[in-house]
Each structure stands twice: as C-alpha cells, then as structure tokens.
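Sequence, please.
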C-alpha cells in the first residue's frame, strides 16, 4: 500500500459501527471491522469503533471491562438494551446518533440492520459508507415478525441514504442492482498467512491430535447447516472425530437440537466458543474443514481454514464456491446423502486430502489480501 494515507493532509477521521465489539471473534463482521480499522489506524487515520455493550456470545468468561484503545483504534461503548431482539437495534441507534454529531469525515456502517439509522449522519453532512455482509433478512432467526421487517427497512434506508455501498459477493451486487437500481462496489474480505501451531491445548482439553478430526468452526446458527453435518457424519465409517467449534448467537434452542442429534455418538465434540491459540490449533491440525452453509455473505472462516492449508468441503452456494475455485470440493446444498458420500470419500483417501492441502494456502493468500481491501475502501471513502 506504500505511504498513501499517511500524509497529514490526507488523514481521515473515520468511525465504524454495526459490529458487536472489537477485539472479538463473535462473528465475521467483528473480524472485518478489526482488520480494516487497525490497518487504517496504522496508516495514520483517526479511527473510532462504537462497541456494543452487554453480554458476549461466548459466555460470561469472555465478558470483560471495556477496552478504550486497541492497536491504535479508539473504542467507544454505546448504550445497549441487552435483551434478545433489542441489543442490535438499540446499539445501532445510539451509535448512529453519536456518529452523526461526532467529528468524522466518514461513517462506515456494517450490516443492513444498523443501516436503518444511516440517514442521521448523512443529514448532518457525513459521508456514509455501508458494507452489506449478506442479506441478513434471509437468516432463519430473523424470519417473520419484527426482525425481518426491521432488516428490510435497514436495507431500504441504506440503498437510499448511503453515499456508497460495499458488497462481498457478486450475487448481492446483482440483488441491489435489480431491487434498488443501485450500483455497489465489490470489495472482498482478506486473509493473512497464519502461523501453524502443534496440537497441545486441543490435545489436553479435547484429546485431539493432528489429522484426527473433521472441523466445523463458526457461529452455531441454522443457516450454517451444522444439522446437515451431524446427520451426515453419524453414518460415516471412520474413527476420526467431528469437532463443532463455535458459540450460539441467540440460538440456544438450535444448539440443543444439535446436541440431541449428536447424542450417542462419542466421536462428536462441541468445544463452545474458541479464540486465540485454541482456535489456531484447531485450524492447524484438522484433517478436513467443512462448511455446510445454506446462506453466507463471504465466509471468513473458509478463507481462514484455507490459509492454514486445510482441505475444505463446502456447500455449493456461490458465496462459498466462488471463493475456493478448484482448490476445494463442494457438495449439493442441504443434501445430507451427498455430504455423507463426500465425507466418506475424504476419510478413505488421504492422498486426495493431501493434494488439496498442498494447494489451499498459496491459492487463498495470493487471491485475497486485507491490504488490498483497505486500499479499495479508502479510495471509496475519498471519492
């Protein structure tokens, strides 16, 4: 990226909102906000992130006192009604209100729901950028009732009031063109070449060794398709374990459903929310990574899994298939029998697994860069 953006006259005052909190791995949006914000701060821009107050999806052990600064990014907590269905709405309202009256050149809103209030900073002269991480109203937990209507409203407000809209997939780009006659900017997420760790913590806590398990890592929500994975895996003939790593996001009932599906199969392990070294070890030592989603924006966990050199098996939705090219394998979305067949094939053929592993990291790290995402986003800020 060179020195662009570091000159005093070109420094921008930027705020970001719509995420839960950073630093955190509560979801893909939080990872994106952290990566963009910290890199922009390192370039000399003044960056503020409005963090949601309240409970961490990983559980009470991850709750902590608010951090005021992180890697050059200023963190400001906003008032949040910490109740299901109200946390996102209330935090977005007060964050947009603060952003509207704050000393910012750019207000960058992440996700469709928070965009419901994007008219506030726009009316007060701020340049408003909206990143649509996916069509959130399609997610099962928002189907019907107030949630779906609110997110649709936020989408319409974003299409009307945002100066520019960033999308993460070609499908969403076409959706905004067809639905709102609105041009958008395709800026994909990035990834970094990670350090691979030996299996120490995961061996001590879960009895996992290198290449002894199939990994799913992500939020525990119905649209991610973990129920397909468990049902398929139960009929796979293998001594390998299935590791379901992640925390529930307002979906405790779904988590209980998954545990019921897994009952009686001691090969299936639920780790709960993971981050840090534990997460790195899980990625580093998996035999196979799988993402059986029905719905995605641009799955960061898939980029991360490939960056660790994993063989990946994913559903054939465009948001996944377009990311991996020919360097991973797909199964038909929602087809448990096809998923079982592909899982069995990989368990029986270590050479094919190794072939994909040998190519994955170089492909994904050469194609998706956070620095490129930052450069394109800053260009959009300045237009």
């Amino acid at each position: 990226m060179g020195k662009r953006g570091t000159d005093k006259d070109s420094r921008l005052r930027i705020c970001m909102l719509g995420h839960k909190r950073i630093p955190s791995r509560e979801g893909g949006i939080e990872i994106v906000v952290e990566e963009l914000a910290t890199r922009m701060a390192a370039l000399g821009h003044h960056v503020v992130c409005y963090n949601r107050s309240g409970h961490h999806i990983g559980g009470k052990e991850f709750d902590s006192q608010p951090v005021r600064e992180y890697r050059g990014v200023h963190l400001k907590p906003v008032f949040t009604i910490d109740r299901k269905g109200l946390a996102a709405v209330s935090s977005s309202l007060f964050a947009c209100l603060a952003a509207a009256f704050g000393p910012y050149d750019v207000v960058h809103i992440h996700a469709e729901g928070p965009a419901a209030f994007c008219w506030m900073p726009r009316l007060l002269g701020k340049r408003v950028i909206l990143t649509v991480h996916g069509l959130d109203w399609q997610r099962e937990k928002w189907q019907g009732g107030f949630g779906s209507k609110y997110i649709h409203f936020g989408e319409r407000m974003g299409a009307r009031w945002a100066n520019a809209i960033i999308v993460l997939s070609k499908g969403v780009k076409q959706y905004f063109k067809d639905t709102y006659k609105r041009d958008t900017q395709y800026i994909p997420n990035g990834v970094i070449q990670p350090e691979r760790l030996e299996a120490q913590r995961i061996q001590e806590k879960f009895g996992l060794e290198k290449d002894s398990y199939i990994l799913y890592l992500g939020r525990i929500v119905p649209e991610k398709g973990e129920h397909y994975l468990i049902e398929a895996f139960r009929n796979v003939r293998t001594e390998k374990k299935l590791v379901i790593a992640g925390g529930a996001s307002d979906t405790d009932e779904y988590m209980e459903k998954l545990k019921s599906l897994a009952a009686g199969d001691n090969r299936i392990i639920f780790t709960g929310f993971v981050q840090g070294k534990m997460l790195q070890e899980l990625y580093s030592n998996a035999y196979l990574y799988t993402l059986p989603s029905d719905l995605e924006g641009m799955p960061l966990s898939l980029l991360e899994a490939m960056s660790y050199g994993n063989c990946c098996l994913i559903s054939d939705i465009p948001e996944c298939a377009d990311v991996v090219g020919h360097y991973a394998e797909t199964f038909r979305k929602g087809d448990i029998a096809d998923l079982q067949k592909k899982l069995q094939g990989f368990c029986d053929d270590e050479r094919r697994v190794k072939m994909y592993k040998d190519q994955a990291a170089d492909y994904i790290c050469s194609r998706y860069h956070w620095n490129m995402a930052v450069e394109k986003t800053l260009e959009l800020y300045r237009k």
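Residues 1-6 have pLDDT under 50 and may be disordered.
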